[in-house]
Every structure is written in structure tokens, then in C-alpha cells.
Amino acid sequence: MALASVRRADEGFTVPRARVFEYCTRAQFHVRLSRVFSCPCSAVASPDMHTRILHAQYGELIQPRNGSVDETPKMSAGQMLLVAFDGMFAQVETAFGLLVEKLNKMEIPVAWRKIDIIREARSTQVNFFDDDNHRQVLEEIFFLKRLQTIKEFFRLCGTFSKTLSGSSSLDDQNTVNGPVQVVSVKTLFRNSCFSEDQMAKPIKAFTADFVRQLLIGLPNQALGLTLCSFISALGVDIIAQVEAKDFGAESKVSVDDLCKKAVEHNIQVGKFSQLVMNRATVLASSYDTAWKKHDLVRRLETSISSCKTSLQRVQLHIAMFQWQHEDLLINRPQAMSVTPPPRSAILTSMKKKLHTLSQIETSIATVQEKLAALEASIEQRLKWAGGANPALAPVLQDFEATIAERRNLVLKESQRASQVTFLCSNIIHFESLRTRTAEALNLDTALFELIKRCQQMCSFASQFNSSVSELELRLLQRVDTSLEHPIGSSEWLLSAHKQLTQDMSTQRAVQTEKEQQIETVCETIQSLVDNIKTVLTGHNRQLGDVKHLLKAMAKDEEAALADGEDVPYENSVRQFLGEYKSWQDNIQTVLFTLVQAMGQVRSQEHVEMLQEITPTLKELKTQSQSIYNNLVSFASPLITDATNECSSPTSSATYQPSFAAAVRSNTGQKTQPDVMSQNARKLIQKNLATSADTPPSTVPGTGKSVACSPKKAVRDPKTGKAVQERNSYAVSVWKRVKAKLEGRDVDPNRRMSVAEQVDYVIKEATNLDNLAQLYEGWTAWV
Question: Which residue ranges does the record annotate as region Disordered (predicted)?
């Protein structure tokens, strides 16, 4: 990560590294470290003021506080890398501080220090931590060493990056005038870095210094204290044994003798037998062997993991080097042992990915357009519903917030995709020109040829001062080049004039013929437009009678869908209404365009307007056939078969089959509820007027009343549900009620106002004929 940051010259990494270098140089701690280590520790009384300044500046660099204390500081990539690298040193320092603190808190008897393992561990220890001032001075010293290690490591990272890329290091940029001196290879690459072992040298030096100055002796001392604690727990008085004179005259006691004494004492008192002791010895030996093997496996696995990571980085370095110098390495007679994929394969794969990304962007844009239309429809319906129900206002706000959030997300992803596309296109363009492929070589050859021709033209133009106008160039292109006369002579001009005169006369004749054809076509189109307008007016008038029925049928289908029924969309009224709306929009667009184009002077814009509606006309041809066929398929017969003769409240003899019912019976398709013809509606109204007291279940015939036989319910063969059939009598009643509510019961072609309806009702109620008829009907029942 450090190499990648240095290689791409990241500003977030370069600035912290420069500040670390500045702190290290300002403090001049190389001299101070040598001076401190050369002096006895007792001579150092307090930390230096420079060290405190370094602590404060380095702490600000590690944890910047630009905002408030509660906010998390925003760090750059370089600062995060520096914090992670510094965390290793901080972790070691914290663990060492805990170890020293635990050892200082232990109450160790003076006699225990005469035991050989503790005495030898204290003799190898360089520094002691009994004095707080001494310990603080050591911490400051190793803080400065930490800064030195960090600086040296990042310097080697920069040197390694520059060495890998082939540029000179930071220390080799000073140029001198005069001839270049011949130097040896070692001198030339003295400031270069070629391996990760070189970069690890500062860290290894810090580790060795830390162990030698601080850590050495402490583990053995802790182990000796642990053994003494166990021996005391087993019942052996260590202080008495040390004070005795039987264990040597060198003022030290062997820990092995104390262990033997503890074992013999416990065997004598009978705490455990010799057999248990032998088993414990065997188990301890086996555990030691197994632990060593396990530790070896652990260290080998760690080493293997480290080697794999290093191998991955080295492979990336080799790939970068070979891709950068592929043109030179191709002509190398000896093949390299590690050969990464060539740039051509990488570029081909990148082109495929880029093409796929562009297709995905196109499909996403199409889906977004459809989604925007659906969102607008949902939002409009929520607004309509919110006007009547204020409780839906939060739902509308949540919906708008969700839409805005999703649109922002799609916009961000689109911007990222555009940036990736732009970057990949530039990479492909640059690498394709740099790679020695057949296409790149052809481009180079064409470029050289073009440069050569430009050089020749420049040389030719510098020798002559004459120029050719644009009109003369057009004349040369127009005139036949097979003329025998030289260009510019009198004979050539006469031949050119004659040829141009003939071309002009021919063009004028063709133009006149085309204008006549255009006039004829325009007249034909105008007549067709008038015919279409007439037909469309009649169509709209006739469709107005059944349009409200189609809307009602569509609402029934939507209600069935809401109830959970399986209502297919194909061949449904909803599909028909959508297709009809599209057809109506297309035909209006075509008519408006034709009328607008015919009313203008013929120009290029006129031609473009007529060319734009050509696809729409082809679509209208298909839509018109589908519209009329589907409209007829929705009709049902006004009379039923003999088996279903009692399904209507009126006699089958009274009804006559309509055209739609005939088409239905011929096609044999399953249709939706029927549409009643005008003749049948008049007959129904006449029958209802003559026999108002006849119940719907009986039909007046030739003097007999026919009772309805029970009819077996018709079921859908696919779903098994009962098929609902619309009652013609109920439909007629519903139409009369609807006409009454709309004010069309008197005159179906004109809608009366409320005042007119009130006047009409009062007039009918006060009519003497109606009152007499009402009285006559009432007296019949008395």
C-alpha cells in the first residue's frame, strides 16, 4: 500500500511523509541519540524540550482535530497509512509498559534475587526501570528512534518505487555541467532499493535495539519468578534454603536444586508418589516436543503467508515492468521465466467490458424512462387521493423522498460509470497506440505517409503563388475529365460551357416534371385527409355509445384483479383501451402533421415532416385492423341458444341478433359482456312500457306464460369458476337510470341543466293525463 501511494504520488500520503521528514530533521535526533546513550542515565534529569515539541506535532499529525472534539477526524489516505504504521510501534510500547508495570508491582523477596536464573537475567539487563525518570528518558529515546525508523522506511519506499519505474531517486537529481564521469555499478546504484529486505532493515534495526536496550533479561526474570512461586506453593521455604550454607559459596542458588528439593519434599510427605512423578515427567517431555513442533508449524505458516504476499507484490512489479518495456522485451532472444498476460489481451478484455457497460447504461436509461412514467402516475394518483383524504399526505412525502433518494443514487452511479468509461477509453486509446500491434503499425505507416505528402505539398506550394477558388474546384468536379483539351484552354472552356448548358436544361425539365407529380400527390393527400376526417367523425360519434360500457368493463376487470382473481391482460378491455388511446394519438399526430405540411410552402422542412410520419402510417395500418377486430370481439349475442333461453328477463322472440353477436358466433371466441343494439333497445323499452306489471321472470308470448327452467351454471374450463353473464334487462334499466342522472332522458342528444330538469319534472307531475292515468292504475288495486 505504501509503494502504491508513493508510486502514484498521492498528495494525502506525500504531505504527512514530508512533515515526518521535517520533524526528524528539525530535531536533529541522530546526534541527540548518540549523546544520550553515551552519557550515564543518572546524568539525564528530565526530557528535552525538543522532544515535547515533537510529541505535540506528531500527535497532531496522527490525530488531527479540525472540527469539534465529538466529531471523528477526517484523515487522508497518507494519514491513515501513517496511523496504521505507527500503530505497530504503539502496540509494542503499550505491551512493554504493561510488562514493566506488572514487574514493578510485584513484591519480590531479596533472597530470591540470589537464585541463578533471576541473578543471570538481571545481569544481562541493560537498563532498570525502578526509577520513573530513567524510564521516561528511555521512552523519549525510543520515541525518537520510532520517528527515525518511520522516516527511513518511507524514504526506502520512495526509492524502491523510483527504482522500479526507472527514474532517478531523490538524491540523484543534482546535475553537473561537463562530461559525465564513469562510475562503478555499486556507486551508481548506491541510493537504489531493489528488494523488500532492504526496506525492512530500519524496522529490524529498531527491533534489535529495542530488545537489546529494554527487553533482554525481562522474560527470563519473569520465568524465574514464576518458578519460585511454584516452588513456594509446593511447600519449600526458598528464603530458608537460600540463607543456608549448603548450596554453594558463590552467593547464588541453583534453581535446579530447588526443584529437586521440592520434588523430594512432596514425595516424602506423600502428596504424590514416584509413579505420578514419572508420568508427569513423561507428559512434560511430550508436551515440550509437541509444543516445539506446533511452534515450528506456526512459524512456517507465517513465513509461507509472508512469502505469498511478497510473491504477489513481486508478480505485480514484474507485470508492471514488462508491460512498461514490452516493446523492448519482445525482441529479447532469451525468454523470461515469468510472463504475464500481454497488453493486447488486457486491452481486448477491457474493450469487451466497456462494450458491456455501455449496453447496460442504455438499458438502464430505457428502464428509467418507464420508471419515471410510472412514478409520475403514482404521484398524481396520490395527490388526487390526498385531496380527499389528508391522512395520505405523509405517504406522499415518503414516496417523494424515496424517489428523490433513488434518483440521486442512480445519478451517482451513472456519473461513476461515465468516469470509468472515460478512463478506460483513454487507457485503451493510449495503450493501443503504444502497443506494437498490426493496427498501431498501420497507423504509424499512414502517419508517416501523410507527413511525407504534407511535406511535398508544402514544398510545391512554396514554389507557386497562384491559388484555385472554390468555384473553380466545383467546376472541375462537374465537368467531364475525359476531355482531350488541356484544362484552362479556350477549347476546354467551350466544351465545359456546352456541357453545363445541357445539364441545366435537363435539370429544369426533370424539376418541372417532379413539381407536377408533387402537386398531384398533394391533391390526393388532401382528399384522403378530408375523407379520413369524415370517417373519424362518424367513428367517434358511434364509439361514444359504447365507450362508457368499455370503461365500466375495464373497472370490473380491475376490481376482479383487486379481489385476487386471475384476469389475463391479453385480449382484455384494458389492453383494448390502451391500444385505442395509442391509435387515437397516432392518427391525430398524422392528421395534424399532414394539415400543417400542406399549408406551408414546399421546402426541406416540409419533406422532413412528411418523412417522419411514414413509420407512424405503417403502424396505424396494423393498429386499425386490431382495434376494430378487438372491438367487435367484445360483443355478445342479444339472444341465447335454446338451452339458455331463460337467462334474460324478456322473450327470445322479442330479441333480434346484432351484427356483433353474429360475428361472435362465427368466430367462436369467448367474449366479454354484450353491447345492445338500438333496435333491440327500442323493442325492450316498448315491451316494458306495455307490460310494466309483468315480473322479469316471465315472458309474454302468444297467450301463454312460460316458466324458466333451472339453468346450469356455465363454468370456465381453465379456472373452474362460474362465468358471469350480463343481464340485458338490468343493462337497459341501468342505462335509463344513467340517462336520468345525466339529464338525457328527454332528449338523448342534449344534456339538460338542473333548472330544466326541475321544470320538466314539475310539468310532468302537474299534467292531467298523467294524474288521470295514475288514479286509474291506483283504483285497479283498491
Answer: 689-712
